[in-house]
Amino acid sequence: MGRVAAFFDVDGTLVKTNVIHSYAYTAFNLPSLADRFTRALRLAAALPIYGLVENINRKTFNDLFYKNYEGISEDRLIALGEEFFENVLRRALYPRARSLIQRGKEQGIHQVMVTGALDFTMAPLARYLGMDLMKANELEYRDGFAVGTVKRPLLAGPTKAHWIRQYAQENDIDLDRSFAYADSYSDYPMLSLVGRPCAVNPEMKLRSAARAFDWPIMNLA
Amino acid sequence: MRMPADLGEKPGSSNLRRSLDRDLTRQIDILDEKSAPRIIHSGEDILVEHLPAGTRVIYPNPPMQPLANPRAAVRYALTHPENSEPLYALLKPGMKLTIAVDDISLPLPMMKTPDIRQSILEHVLELAADNGVDDIEIIIAVSLHRHMHSWEVKRMVGERIFNAYWPKKLYNHDAEDRENIVSLGQTELKEEVALNRRAVESDLLIYVNINLVPMDGGNKSVAVGLSSYESIRAHHNSHTMVRCHSYMDPARSALASSCDRMGAIVHSQLKIFQIETCLNNDFYGDSPLKFLGKREDELTRVERTALDATVWSLNKMPREAKRKLFHSIPANYGLVAVNAGETNAVHARTLDTNFAQYNVPVRGQADVLVCGVPFISPYNANSILNPILVQVMGLGYFFNMYVGKPLIKKGGVLILTYPLTDEFNATHHPSYIEFFHRLLPESNDAAALEKKYEEEFARNPAYIDMYRFGNAYHGVHPFYMWYWGEAGRQHVGKTIIVGSQTESVPRLLGWDSAPDLTTALEMARDFTSPNPQITMMHHPPIVIAQTE
Predict the structure, then answer these.
(1) Helix, strand, or coil (residue B364)
(2) Closest Cα to residue B202, out of B234, B169, B229?
(3) Exposed end of chain A (fewer CB within 10 Å): N or C?
């Protein structure tokens, strides 16, 4: 019998932020005032489009959105990731998220964060929560600067499920006895992959799916 | 001790005597060809069925006379307790006082307001205030049951107490709050005893109970109601549950013995003042459905028409609407006894009253036992009676409604009526869903499931969170329901469910299925003998067979 793992989505599930918050934080904390201004303006103008695209296809949204990071240096992003955690994420963390993970660790359940957010924003959070592994999207860099694209395969929706299946095969994880926690219907593939799915603070579409399938619904918010 | 003339005799004693004086055969009808069809509950529906001539129908005893002045009886019990100083003498200014109350699993269905817990709490709080006690917390002793919703708590304790205490000083016990669970040691049989910290650290713990059936109350109130999974697993296990003969006969119940051993540890470290109440079985009162409580052969023409109309209407109503309707009708229970003081002394008196209300002497066991499963159990107040709970109603509760010998012979057939589906309430019973769909296809052996899966469910972080901060039963609870049914499962030769809406659900429960009662009785004859002794337990309300 293989090991048991718990796979966690992050945005909306463990914390009440999303990728837009982390980019906005980055944009507003760049050294150049002009750069800050331009990026903030561009973000504000594009928000309605992001909202529309996210509702249609999460993967396209990520592709489109991560272009915003183009031209920002890698070391700056890592430093801002740490700051973002201290100033934003730690406070946005749902109070019971940590104990949920702690109880799982006590049971010997392998704790894995699987998120479409960017690795430098998630690494401090994963450390703080005591995750055994973090799998997040990674930007591509050229000469130390982000080029505005994400390494493939981009982690979102079905590709999260694909990664989990592959990871489980390679690491002797029994998916039938494993857990998955997510808040959005876009993570339906990941939830349906494991024997113990759990809808956490679910939006309406996931809530109705969870009800239809008798999945547990948890409210960490 | 004599009570003041205006109060009559001490609650309990006179009722017991009245019951013993009763004509002991009056509660049993033997049917013949001319007998009227019997009313049988089937979830939110009512069946009206002809049973074969010779069938023995056991009816509940008539409701005991409720106490004329319940408030006076409560006051009297608090000031004239058993083996204890009066409550006022135990209350001191500056002391830390905790009051624990039974949860929504009692009584069934909920009683008309004011709930007896409200009446007692009002007395106790008034007495505490008069004696300068202001550090008071009220804990709902939910054990591993679901936390009560705030609106349920409000109904139970009344608006005044709710507004003054909820949620800081009136709250649900949390068996998974490690910081606030204290170990008190182990019994001589290495049973872990652990309790709510506030209760342990109080100068006085008052427990307010409703003793609906004889397995309630006594040492079980505190030792289970305010405890933790680590402690409860000592007796809520497949091994202990099959050594109860029956749950309703504490003298022959391994569960009750375990609670008594734990109670001895608890009492050596805590000062407890136990208040136990007994209700009569006036289920219907003056409600429009009161004809359901009458003998079928005694129904008037008007009542028969009302019965037909009720059956017709229920058949036409959507199930959810029927469920809402039935859960919203409170029972007319009246207070018949209140005893207070030292736990064991109080509980002995309580049991006398329970037995007097419920026990019906029965001569001889049955080959075939027919029980109608109603819409409610202790675990689905304002919720759905899911298949695991139907199982516990049949093999756990109805099978165990005996003192002496089981009403059904070893290897006999138990026929239950209930429109089984795989419907669950995901808010209240999330772990039941996994238990049902994931474990039962693998095995229905309680000991095997316990060994392989209990710990996994009990420690599931999601279920723990949903128990602590939502309104879910603890992850381990479906296991307890399955253990609860294990003695019955091992005893009966076959269980047949009448009216199941699906074929798969009875199969998962290990049951046979019949479309109607006539077919079920045919199947039972094939399994037992061509001319079996058929008995029907006519509940609700509660009836316990005192079988010779």
Answers:
(1) coil
(2) B169
(3) N
Question: What six digits make up the tokens of B25?
Answer: 């055969």
CA atoms within 13 A on the CB side of B92: 8
Domain contains B288: yes
Q: Do B438 and A195 touch (CB under 8 A)?
A: yes
Q: Count of domains in chain A?
A: 1
B319: in domain: yes
B310 within a domain of the structure (yes/no):
yes
Give residue-wise pLDDT tens across range B206-227. 999 999 999 999 999 999 999 9
Q: DSSP state, B86? A: -
Mind telling me how many Å the CA of A60 is from chain B's nearest CA? Answer: 32
Alpha carbon of A42: minimum distance to chain B alpha carbons (Å):
41
In angstroms, the CA A187 to CA B96 distance is 50
How many Å apart are CA B287 and CA B136, to the nearest integer?
38
What span, in angstroms and rounded, lies between the C-alpha atoms of B545 and B236? 24
Q: Which domain holds residue B318?
A: 284-328
Minimum distance, in Å, between the CA of residue B425 and any CA atom of chain A: 8
* Residue B290 near residue B284, CB atoms below 8 Å: yes
Mark which residues 415-444 of B lie under 8 Å from A by CB.
Answer: 424, 426-427, 430-431, 433-434, 437-438
Integer CA distances (angstroms), A152 to A136, A138, A149, B34, in order = 11, 9, 9, 81
Whether the bond into B532 is cis, omega within 30 of 0: no
Say which DSSP state B293 is in.
Answer: G
For the stretch B86-108, pLDDT in tens is: 999 999 999 999 999 999 999 99
Name the band, by pLDDT with cuts 50, 70 and 90, for residue B9.
very low
Tell me which residue of A66, A61, A62 sits closest to A23, measured CA to CA. A66
Nearest to B160 by CA among B126, B204, B206, B194: B126
**Which residue from A106, A177, A218 is facing B462, i.e. has the nearest CB?**
A218
Inter-CA distances, B448 with B363, B483, B485, Å: 36, 11, 14
